[in-house]
Specification:
Layout: E1 34-40, H1 58-65, E2 68-70, E3 73-74, H2 79-88, H3 121-125, E4 131-137, E5 163-167, E6 179-181, E7 184-186, H4 195-213, E8 219-224, H5 236-240, H6 249-263, H7 288-321, E9 328-334, H8 350-354, H9 361-366, H10 382-388, H11 401-404, E10 408-411, E11 421-423, E12 427-428, H12 432-440, E13 447-448, E14 451-452, E15 476-481, E16 484-489, E17 492-496, E18 509-513, H13 529-545, H14 557-560, E19 569-572, E20 577-578, E21 592-601, E22 608-615, E23 618-625, E24 628-635, E25 638-643, E26 651-663, E27 666-673, E28 676-683, E29 696-698, E30 700-701, E31 714-715, E32 719-729, H15 735-744
Parallel strand pairs: 1-8, 1-9, 2-11, 3-12, 4-5, 4-8
Antiparallel strand pairs: 2-10, 5-6, 6-7, 9-10, 13-14, 15-16, 16-17, 17-18, 19-32, 20-29, 21-26, 21-32, 22-23, 22-29, 23-24, 24-25, 26-27, 27-28, 30-31
Helix pairs in contact: 4-7, 6-10
């Protein structure tokens, strides 16, 4: 029988005549060290102390001192693709993650999830007895599969992990995250909560529980911080620690960083700085207010990274305390280069700035004291991102070195015999899983969970751990994200910067000999045109081989990806929760619509959110407060509230709000209580924009409040039978037209 297949004892009619004997699950591994992967987010090549930074990162630096620092390690330009390569050992386009999980476009290379034909390392290690744990950022499941309706096929617990505590999307509020434990949404606990601290608290608890129950069982722990992605949220004391440290500006910081990189042996003695990135101001030409603002942004970021390092230190101390230091492989890296998304001056609200709702120095200065706290969603100026990628050019999202070179630290006392050395071989994040399988003596399984596997695309760099002179075994690596392209081949690199909306045929390719020019300063395209053509042709062959095509720069209809096909009617019930960017969800801001809610209350004292979409940094909500009905829209902090003057009776009531788009930035709302008119008002600004960064909830406003009239979680104190949303469109219409169209949709 199938359930007897590992039984090697003897079965007789009675237990006294029989022999019990079970063999452990067989494993072909030559060794089973513990494995810890630490992934930082949007942290540039030179933002760790051991890579030249002025930011204090002693825990991460200790991994370089007690292990190895890789100087020539590469990633993809953005997060989901890098995580895909890291965990699977396959190139990201080949397995469906050509760009971030939200940006699907209907083609195999951008499905928004990782193909099961490319099992991740957790799925490969579990059959060998590994306990598999993931804490922090996931971002490897299509956003339309992260609602309570699932399917859950690509959530961490269904992709090889025994336990998960973190968030599924690409970014979240550090003070009030959209939190998942296992397969369930939960809310942060306690005052003073911070996500980075919580991630490590959970990881340490899991390790203590595991070692207490089975001290010999190996573990694979994947710890993916949201730091230093925006928002740069940190306890104020950490930011204040850096007061004045960056007053000399980003130009001076780049120079000092390069000096430290050369002194530590990370860079050659003759290394030059890449030219200033386009648009970055000369620090000395900024006025006093601009300098004061920019310096504070960097103090907050430095505190954010410092705070993260403290949490990493706690994790490393826990591993030591459990006696697991010597036989634990610890890897630490970042997913891409530093981000330029803060623009020239930085912003107190990243979402507001990148969606064109204003971002002046004056606005930012008014919020200076709030930076890093729960009232901001801040991001530093791109001058600091340039400095954070020293000595390279460009940023996250680009295929130049500033986007794709990243720190990599490896510590394994039992396996690395020469500590504190720097490795210079070219490698890529796709090579990490092949390296780990090589170190364990684990062959790639032909099938995982019954699914036939595709080959690994990366190569092992295990031979470099103890050989400083070992030659890289890698010969080629392509790069592509949202039309940005590049290719490395045996020391040479061709790269191009693509301008969105232009023909890919118009892209101008550049050529660099990286073995002699790490920072891609001397373009050799005119000197070696044949070499350049050879590499361009090679890029196209690799693109065909790994499913990169069709190229898509997000300018076409399909390229938009995360916006939904038009919908016009939704019926939602109490406790419904739809993740932000959920493509099938309601979109009503700037759109004529009707919302009808049937509720029941025992008392007129009862209130709460009936429905809320988004939070403090953008969204809308309908709620009861003071026994009145209110409708608030929040456009990246620009709020407008319309309130009904009519008291709401207890018991069963039908509430309705009809909203008519009457102008390009205005909407007229009319309330009804049990069909009777209950007041009118104007919503302004009333803009068609669907970006929110918190879920839609029925019966609560869960993370941060859409309206500052209440605090979250703002839970409805009664019963919601249903909420029906009927939307018309973005055209300007009058009340009669709205009613005709709504009635026609029923």
């Amino acid at each position: 029988m199938e359930h007897d297949r590992l039984f090697d004892g003897i079965i007789k009619p009675t237990v006294d005549e029989s022999t019990a004997s079970w063999s452990p699950t067989p494993s072909v591994l030559e060794r089973r060290p513990n494995i810890v992967m630490i992934v930082l987010d949007d942290v540039g090549y030179s933002q760790l102390g051991c890579y030249g930074s002025e930011i204090d990162t002693p825990a991460l630096d200790s991994l370089a001192t007690d292990g190895l620092r890789y100087a020539n390690f590469h990633v993809t330009p953005i997060c989901s693709p890098t995580r895909t390569c890291l965990l699977t050992g396959r190139n990201h386009h080949s397995v469906g993650m050509g760009r971030v999980a939200e940006m699907v476009n209907g083609f195999p290379n951008t499905r928004g999830f990782v193909s099961k034909e490319a099992a991740n390392i957790a799925e490969m290690l579990r059959p060998h007895g590994y306990h598999t744990l993931a804490a922090g950022k996931w971002h490897l499941a299509s956003i339309n599969e992260t609602s309570p309706a699932g399917p859950y096929d690509h959530w961490p617990l269904q992709r090889g992990f025994d336990r998960f505590h973190g968030f599924l999307a690409g970014e979240t509020n550090q003070w009030n995250p959209e939190l998942i434990q296992g397969n369930e949404r939960i809310e942060p606990e306690g005052d003073g909560y911070h996500l980075s601290e919580d991630i490590v608290d959970q990881a340490c608890k899991w390790l203590r529980q595991l070692v207490s129950a089975d001290t010999e069982r190996p573990f694979f722990l994947y710890v993916a911080f949201a730091a230093g992605h925006s928002p740069h949220h940190v306890p104020r004391a950490y930011a204040d620690k850096y007061a004045g440290r960056f007053d000399a500006g980003w130009d001076a910081a780049r120079t000092r960083t390069l000096e430290r990189q050369i002194a530590s042996g990370l860079m050659p003695a003759d290394q030059r700085l890449a030219p200033r990135n386009p648009g970055v101001q000369v620090w000395d030409e900024l006025d006093a207010d601009e300098k004061r603002l920019a310096a504070r942004f960097e103090e907050v970021f430095a505190g954010f990274l410092d705070h993260t390092d403290v949490q990493i230190g706690r994790l490393l101390e826990q591993i030591d305390a459990l006696g697991k230091r010597d036989d634990t492989i610890v890897l630490a890296m970042s997913d891409n280069g530093a981000s330029s998304e803060g623009g020239p001056h930085g912003t107190y609200d990243h979402q507001r700035a990148r969606n064109g709702f204003g971002n002046s120095v004056e606005e930012n200065l008014k919020r200076l004291d709030d930076m890093g706290g729960p009232l901001t969603y801040n991001h530093y100026p791109f001058g600091w991102a340039m400095a954070g990628n020293t000595p390279y050019k460009r940023y996250k999202g680009n295929t130049y070195a500033g986007g794709v070179r990243a720190p990599l630290l490896v510590r394994w006392p039992n396996g690395i015999h020469a500590w504190g050395e720097t490795r210079r071989q070219f490698y890529h994040v796709v090579d990490v899983t092949p390296t780990l399988l090589d170190l364990l003596g684990a062959p790639l399984p032909s099938h995982v969970n019954g699914v036939e596997q595709i080959p690994l695309h990366g190569v092992s760099m295990a031979h470099t751990l103890n050989d400083n002179d070992a030659h890289t075994r890698k010969t080629i690596q392509y790069f592509e994200t949202i039309g940005q392209r590049g290719i490395w081949h045996e020391g040479w690199k061709a790269v191009t910067f693509h301008h969105r909306g232009t023909s890919f045929d118009d892209d101008i390719w550049e050529l660099y000999h990286l073995d002699k020019d790490l920072a891609e300063i001397d373009n050799l395209a005119d000197e070696h045109p044949q070499k350049l053509e050879e590499l361009i042709d090679l890029w196209w062959r690799e693109a065909e081989r790994y499913g990169v095509l069709p190229l898509d720069d997000l300018t076409g209809r399909r390229g938009v990806g995360w916006w939904p096909e038009p919908g016009n009617r939704w019926v939602l019930y109490q406790d419904a929760v739809l993740p932000h960017f959920f493509r099938a969800g309601p979109r009503v801001r700037g759109v004529s619509h009707r919302i009808t809610a049937r509720i029941e209350r025992e008392s007129t004292e009862s209130g709460g959110a009936i429905i809320a979409d988004g939070g403090r940094f953008g969204g809308w909500s309908i709620y009861l407060l003071g026994n009145r009905l209110h409708y608030t829209t929040n456009n990246f902090g620009d709020r407008c509230r319309v309130s009904s003057p009519v008291a709401i009776p207890p018991g069963a009531v039908t509430l309705r709000a009809d909203v008519v788009r009457t102008g390009t930035d205005e909407g007229r709302v009319q309330f009804f209580v049990d069909g009777e008119s209950a007041g009118v008002g104007t919503l302004s600004p009333f803009r068609y924009h669907n970006f929110v960064n918190e879920p839609l909830d029925v019966g609560r406003d869960s993370q941060t409040p859409v309206d500052d009239a209440y605090e979250s979680p703002f839970v409805f104190e009664g019963r919601i039978i249903d909420v029906v949303i009927e939307a018309v469109g973005t055209e300007v219409v009058d009340q009669e037209t709205l009613l005709e169209e709504l009635m026609g949709s029923q």
